[in-house]
Design goal:
This protein has about 110 residues and is mostly beta strands. It is about 0% helix and about 50% strand. A hairpin with a 5-residue loop joins strand 4 and strand 5. The protein is globular and about 40 Å long.
């Protein structure tokens, strides 16, 4: 099993990014997927979940209305569209299976700074 995140970068407050996570080694369409983030010096926090049927759930109030999770089962890929980014969104972002996590990928760094 391998999870490969990409799409991060350095952006200014108010800008947008779309993160991608490509999954290898398991039947992607059979699994709910999560996006997490880990800010410097903090633990890894759950940001969003998408069910295998494609229903998205955002957890923290801080991202509701700004982040949207989606997936393309044909491409074994889960996405995180992030709009109106804020400095507090700065973190390394990871994806993983919801209920039976696999080994973590390398993550993708998102830095929001003016």
């Amino acid at each position: 099993v391998q999870l490969v995140e990409s799409g991060g970068g350095l952006v200014q407050p108010g800008e947008s990014l779309t993160l991608s996570c490509v999954a290898y080694g398991f039947t992607f369409s059979n699994y709910d997927m999560n996006w997490y983030r880990q800010a410097p010096g903090k633990g890894r926090d759950l940001v969003a979940t998408i069910t295998k049927a494609g229903a998205g759930i955002n957890y923290p109030d801080s991202v509701k209305g700004r982040f949207t999770i989606s997936r393309d089962n044909a491409k074994n890929t889960v996405y995180l569209q992030m709009n109106n980014l804020k400095p507090e969104d700065t973190a390394v972002y990871y994806c993983n299976k919801r209920w039976v996590p696999s080994s973590w990928g390398q993550g993708t760094q998102v830095t929001v700074s003016s």
